[in-house]
Amino acid sequence: MSETLNQPTSTPVQLSARHLTRHFTTRIPGRFMKAKHVVRAVDDVSLDLVAGHVTAVVGESGSGKSVLARMLARIVKPTSGELDLEGTPIAVGARRTLDYASKVQLVLQDPFASNNPVHHVRHSLERALLLHGATKGTVDELARAALTRVSLEPPDRFLDSYPHELSGGQLQRVSIARALCVRPSVLLADEPISMLDVSVRLGVLNLLKGLCDNEQLALLYITHDIASARYLADETIVMYAGQIVERSISTALVDEPTHPYTQLLIASVPNPADPTSQAREKAEHTTFAVADVGCRFAPRCPYAMDVCRTSDPPDFTVGEGHTSRCWLHASEPEAVSEVAPPERRREGETTKT
Ligand code: SF4
């Protein structure tokens, strides 16, 4: 298992996850539809969300980052694992309580889909407030305060607007205001800027950073854009096919990536000065493929060795608070293949790392 970064004792851990795992079983069409296929969406992920800190989870589609966010929000039940909110263990198999929902809020990728087009902003905010215990006499003031916190001012200009009357950036701020108005301690932001115009993305990132700094929110920022993770996050976690493959302080991870998948993500960031190199990298490595045995990234990895195709690598410590799940960091990677028996995964079997 990966160890989380050591945090100063003065910064409380708001939400802690240990060994979170989610497997989905699908039926393969065939005679009597009996054949099963297990999709290992998230495998043995541990992380701490700390007050005033931003933790980024980076990966391409299919890496499991959105399933992870939904497990943390308790919208998706884990196959196994533990959650701990503000020091209290949570029964992950039980229904989500209103108290948990108010403390851990999720902001989704598409603000147009997450705001009801037939209701104005006032309705969306006041409904959330009433559901979480506010009185009718206070909701108007609280809704105005929520809009002010996300810099939608003056609030009167936005309260009676319908979603189609707002820009994508303004509507995403409304979604953030709706999440904040119930006073959460943890905010899970699932690709909050990916559907916004480039010109307004920085404003939303700065808003999230300001909320984290000024209100001591613990923020999980999910993205496929590793450059924005470096800009916003204190710690960055890279996921591939449900596993954490590298984690570190964001600047160290992006400036000195040690896992071939992280290196590929960074190479894929558009570089206007050298467009041909980017195109070459993409042409060589864009096909998403997952190995059932050994390192899951092996089918795409330019450095794959024999050991990679037979044994799942553990986490290797490559720096202070910096781990990399790659045999390249073993002291003698070739020797490992001689002593480690090939893993044979049976149907429904969970992955141990
Ligand atoms: Fe590549 Fe092997 Fe490292 Fe996996 S373990 S990333 S295949 S070198």
Can you tell me about this structure?
With 353 residues, this protein is α/β, with parallel strands linked by helices. The protein has 2 domains: 13-255, P-loop containing nucleotide triphosphate hydrolases (Rossmann fold); 256-353, no CATH class. The protein has helices at 65-72, 98-103, 111-114, 121-131, 139-149, 156-159, 168-180, 198-215, 226-232, 250-255, 260-267, 275-285, 333-339; strands spanning 13-27, 36-50, 54-58, 80-85, 88-90, 104-107, 186-190, 218-223, 235-240, 243-249, 316-319, 322-324. The strands form 2 sheets. An 8-stranded mixed beta sheet has the order 6-7-8-3-9-10-12-11, with helices on both faces. The protein has a 4-stranded antiparallel beta sheet with strand order 2-1-4-5. Helix 4 runs parallel beside helix 7 (168-180). The longest helix has 18 residues, at 198-215. The chain is globular. The termini are close together. The structure holds iron/sulfur cluster (SF4). Residues 260, 295, 297-298, 301, 303-305, 308, 313, 326-328 line the site of iron/sulfur cluster (SF4).
Strand-helix topology:
Elements: E1 13-27, E2 36-50, E3 54-58, H1 65-72, E4 80-85, E5 88-90, H2 98-103, E6 104-107, H3 111-114, H4 121-131, H5 139-149, H6 156-159, H7 168-180, E7 186-190, H8 198-215, E8 218-223, H9 226-232, E9 235-240, E10 243-249, H10 250-255, H11 260-267, H12 275-285, E11 316-319, E12 322-324, H13 333-339
Helix pairs in contact: 4-5, 4-7, 5-7
Question: Quick recap of the structure?
Answer:
The chain is an alpha/beta fold and 353 residues long.
